[in-house]
Amino acid sequence: MKSHAQVVVIGGGVVGCSVLFHLARHGWTDVVLLERDELTSGSTWHAAGGMHTINGDPNVAKLQKYTISLYKEIEELSGQATGVHVTGGVLLAATEARMDWLRGVVAKGRYLGLDLEEISAKEAAELMPLLDPKQFVGAVRNSEDGHLDPSGVTHAYAKAARKLGAEVERFTKVEDIVRREDGLWRVITNKGEIVAEHVVNAGGLWAREVGRMVGLELPVLAMEHMYLITEDMPEVKAWNDRTGTEIIHAVDFDGELYLRQERGGMLMGTYEKANKPWSEFSTPWNFGHELLEPDIDRIAPSLEVGFRHFPAFQNTGIKQIINGPFTFAPDGNPLVGPVRGLPGFWSACGVMAGFSQGGGVGLALANWMIHGDPGADIWAMDISRYGDWASMRYTNAKVRENYSRRFSIRFPNEELPAGRGLKTTPIYDLLSAKGAQWGVAYGLEVPLWYAPEGVKDEFSWRRSTDFEHVANEVRMVREGVGLSEISSFAKYRVKGQGAEVWLDRMLACKLPKAGRMTLAPMLKEDGKLIGDFSLANLGNGEWFIAGSGIAEQYHMRWFEQHLPADGSVSLEAVGQKLTGLSIAGPKARELLSKVTHADVSADAFKFMDIRKLDIGMAPCLVGRVSYTGDLGYEIWIEPEYQRHVFQVLLDAGEEFSLGLFGSRALNALRLEKNYGSWAREYRPIYGPLEAGLDRFVAYAKDANFIGKAAALSERKDGGKLRLRAFVMDAVDADVIGDEPIWFKDEVRGWVTSGGYAHGAKVSIAMGYVPKEIAEETDGFEIELLGKRHSARMQAAPLFDANQGRMRG
Ligand SMILES: Cc1cc2nc3c(=O)[nH]c(=O)nc-3n(C[C@H](O)[C@H](O)[C@H](O)COP(=O)(O)OP(=O)(O)OC[C@H]3O[C@@H](n4cnc5c(N)ncnc54)[C@H](O)[C@@H]3O)c2cc1C
């Protein structure tokens, strides 16, 4: 075994082998994989070997498509058979709500280049002869589904990597990992030690144990999972003989089942409701090629549905039930990327669909290590979407919920119950008493809307019970003044002698003067967005930044990677050590003037001013800015004062009929201002010009901000895309994101977000289209719930286009 390597990959399952292969293929060959046993000794060997392209997140779907396209190539490179069979498949719907969901999947597939087609239940039965068409209302045909040999694929990755110069050490168990003073890692094994620049945790079932070696408690949990294999079935033989083809894959969402042919019989697996975690606290090191005891009672309710939906199963025997564990993150997507605070330590774990996702995970990680960027938008599987709040118990609750809902529909207005009430602000009970309906962002409870007694969300693809109440909240803001809680923003304090120079390099904007704020895009080296913030200069070398709450860990990782080593900059993510309230609407100034002695008149406290002032008796930091696009103020308060400030505002607001508004109203308000938001309109695949943030980029400033050269060339060549707002001819439903945008009968773009703008009383969609058609106003259509709706580009904001209200 070598004593030094550029990269040590821990774990010889499908994911570790894919990472190794991708590193070698992209030019890093001083890489070694350590496996404590034979390759495939975790969850990989007993997988059902199914693969599919669909995923709730379109960017993950793209990587799944890449994974599937890779198998032939690694087979050729390695000479090792992967057993890949692309049979195609059907996705089945037993209810209309499911069919609506599937139509959304087909629509998304159009701009992802997936070959999906809506078909009738009868047509599905012609493709998959075992199903009873009477049990279904419709289906979707997917040509890219299939299955493979899990062991063959894993060995093919490993052999191909070896041919490219990588090494694999089997029966080599990593027992400890220690960071040296010089930043290199000592990887201590039962066979000696390797010093490495980078370490990848691809420990699968033991990812938690490997994480613990460096002080990490990773949010992953293994669940037991069962599938059965039948005896040979005459129906299968008859089909094979008649057509010369295998029986294709089927996913029966309402039965929560997946099926495929296995030799002369069938394989049927299920994500049962009464699920069971495996090894909740730690995974035994002596677990290897064993299977778990099957528990047929647990899967019996699903099988009952399966046997009804696929009657031929009633006449066959079950040859074997496989029960094996595999790991999940709380939302079911992988945990990939550099780990904040541990330079050179990388995560490639929590991969629950290794044969659909392993290739994409390997590619993204290799890109990231070699080029400093994953090369794709992988936010949905970035490990930084979780913070310390994703504790072991939280993970346990969410993983169980996610497993039991693997095939369930999640409606756009549906909030999930597990792992809730974890982080709350001091006014949580006061807002609840006012009817707050809660959502969650980065573990924190956030008010979505305020419901009268007895009213709550009815889950639907269409406008629902909240519609008129959110409309009232919007009206209150636009006609008077509304109050909302904004604690879920991420907040950062930056100070120190080097702070100004550092911020000038990190952020693409011109830095504001003392007492002023600005919008601050942050770019990567390739000139794409990695953040959008509001930046405030508090004077005396103190800076305050507010940004997307869900991206706190993501941004801290980036900030910390770029901090000067001399300690001249101090940076803190303030989290809930600072809570927030916002007041907005034409009467907001009058309200503020009632609760403070400070001069907040239009001339004394201008748009984008920020200052410390008292509200009631409490010291606050108040900025004159509002995401509602109206006259408004953001008020930052230490948590011990939040109740006081809230009550003072409510009391003083009575004469203005002040009421509360939630994030759904805020969404409606920002849409009629054409304001985008992080993780929707602004993502790391768009340049500032494309995203319409170029007006905040100080191309001419002296500082050589990160991404400057690339941003200048984007400005010169115009980039490829443009973010646009559309008014949509929608009747009873609005877009949620990821719908295709048609132009003259071709899919040319995609929606990033949208909703009903209650102020303007229109349905709005925001999304990207190629720049060549970005100045067109007509000829657009947006596909929603299987129908194309005409859409008109809305260049000027529908509310306060001249900004008189906001700046006045
Ligand atoms: C019953 C069942 C059916 C499934 N069906 C499918 C399917 O149809 N399609 C699909 O895509 N996925 C399926 N899966 C999931 C799939 O198996 C996993 O996504 C995949 O195996 C994850 O691979 P991995 O490499 O991350 O982890 P693992 O396979 O667990 O590999 C981790 C490896 O790391 C090694 N290791 C850990 N710690 C150390 C250490 N300290 N030192 C050295 N080596 C170490 C282990 O020995 C192990 O070999 C199924 C899983 C089960 C259980």
Describe this structure in words.
This protein is α+β, with helices and mostly antiparallel strands and 808 residues long. The protein is built from 19 helices and 38 strands. Strand 10 (185-189) and strand 11 (192-201) form a beta hairpin. Helix 1 (14-25) packs parallel to helix 9. The longest helix is centred in the first third of the chain and has 21 residues, at 58-78. 52% of the residues are buried. The structure holds flavin-adenine dinucleotide. Residues 10-16, 34-37, 41-44, 46-50, 173-174, 202-206, 210, 225, 227, 322, 324-326, 349, 351-356 line the site of flavin-adenine dinucleotide.
Distance between the termini: 71 Å
Q: DSSP strand (E) fraction?
A: 25-35%
- Average of per-residue pLDDT values: 97
User: Biggest β-sheet, characterized?
Assistant: 9 strands, mixed
Give the class from helix and strand content and strand pairing: alpha+beta
> What is the general shape?
globular
Beta strands, count:
38
Helix content: 25-40%
List the keywords:
alpha+beta; binds flavin-adenine dinucleotide
What's a quick, concise take on this entry?
By secondary structure, the protein is an alpha+beta fold.
What is the fold's blueprint, element by element?
Blueprint: E1 4-10, H1 14-25, E2 31-34, E3 50-51, H2 58-78, E4 89-93, H3 96-112, E5 116-119, H4 121-127, E6 138-142, E7 146-147, H5 150-163, E8 167-169, E9 174-179, E10 185-189, E11 192-201, H6 207-212, E12 221-230, H7 234-243, E13 249-252, E14 257-262, E15 265-270, E16 277-278, H8 296-309, E17 318-328, E18 335-338, E19 345-349, H9 354-371, H10 392-404, H11 428-433, E20 436-441, E21 444-450, H12 467-479, E22 482-485, E23 490-495, H13 499-506, E24 517-523, E25 529-539, E26 542-547, H14 552-561, E27 570-573, E28 579-584, H15 588-595, E29 610-615, E30 618-623, E31 632-637, H16 639-653, E32 659-660, H17 663-671, H18 708-717, E33 721-728, E34 740-743, E35 746-757, E36 762-770, E37 780-784, E38 787-793, H19 804-807
Parallel strand pairs: 1-2, 1-11, 2-8, 4-13, 11-19, 22-32
Antiparallel strand pairs: 3-7, 4-6, 5-6, 9-10, 10-11, 12-15, 12-16, 12-17, 13-14, 14-15, 18-19, 20-21, 22-28, 23-26, 23-27, 24-25, 25-26, 28-31, 29-30, 30-31, 33-36, 33-38, 34-35, 34-37, 35-36, 37-38
Helix pairs in contact: 1-5, 1-9, 2-5, 2-9, 12-17, 15-16
